[in-house]
Amino acid sequence: MKHYKSDSTVVAWDVVNEAWENDGSKLRNSPFFAKLGAGFIDEAFVTARAANLNVKLYYNDFRANGMNVESESIYQMVKGMVQRGTPIDGVGLQLHEGTPNPFPPVAEIAQNMQRNADLGLEVLVSEIDAHVCDGMTLEQQKTWYNDVIAACIAQPKCTAITFWGASDKYSWLSSFDETNCDGKSPRGCLWDSNWMKKPAYSGVMDALLGK
Predict the structure, then answer these.
(1) CATH code where residue 52 lies
(2) What domain range includes position 39?
(3) Considering the chain, what is the average pLDDT of its residues?
């Protein structure tokens, strides 16, 4: 942390990443949890703030976008952090949608954003892609991207969006064996394998332009 303290291009840190089990029932048995207990999360944020007063500090996780057990566990965790005065600036939502992850209704994503915003926290779409191997058409993918980006724009506390890959040619999904793709291209990005803009690209641009 001290190494990057003088680098003004570093504006935020993902202080703790994916600390919860996929079902949201408990914290993962990570080396940090095993050695320090549940308090390691607060300790990490306190240490990060002490190292640099100027960067934003975020918690980041996946399968916690809508209203489910995991998002509730994370919400209660960050709520407690805020109440204890633990330095945290926001929550990152990883929207990797499609098998093995569920597709929560966009209204639930917006609801989850709002309750975190009500704590005074920023909300980031920290990672986003959506594969089509569960039967989604490219037009449906376009609509989904449009609706999610529009939900972020409508939320004043949603401050950033990071697309997880640009072209389908280099998507991490192509080597991820837990999808329902059966050898087909997952096609989760905004550009296809030939770097041609897909309908999803138009959906994102329409949302950014308020269409």
Answers:
(1) 3.20.20.80
(2) 2-208
(3) 95
Q: What tens digit of pLDDT does each residue of 12-28 get?
A: 999 999 999 989 999 99
Q: Which residues are known to be catalytic?
A: 18, 127
**What does the chain look like in DSSP terms, one character per residue?**
-GGGTT-TT--EEEEEE--B-TTSSSB---HHHHHH-TTHHHHHHHHHHHH-SSSEEEEEEES-SSSSHHHHHHHHHHHHHHHHT----EEEEEEEEBTTB----HHHHHHHHHHHHTTT-EEEEEEEEE--TTS--HHHHHHHHHHHHHHHHHSTTEEEEEES-SBGGG-GGGG-TTSS-TTS----SSB-TTSPBPHHHHHHHHHHTT-
Give the model's pLDDT for residue 6.
77
* pTM for the structure as a whole: 0.94
Q: Is the previous residue joined to 100 through a cis bond, with omega within 30 degrees of 0?
A: yes
What is the number of structural domains in the chain? 1
Grade residue 10 by pLDDT with cuts at 50, 70 and 90. Answer: confident
Check residue 168 and give its pLDDT: 97
Structure tokens at 191: 């550009």
Which strand ranges, in their side-by-side order, compose the sheet holding 122-130? 12-17, 56-62, 90-97, 122-130, 158-163
Task: Report how far residue 46's alpha carbon sits from residue 32's, in angstroms, rounded to the nearest whole number.
Answer: 15
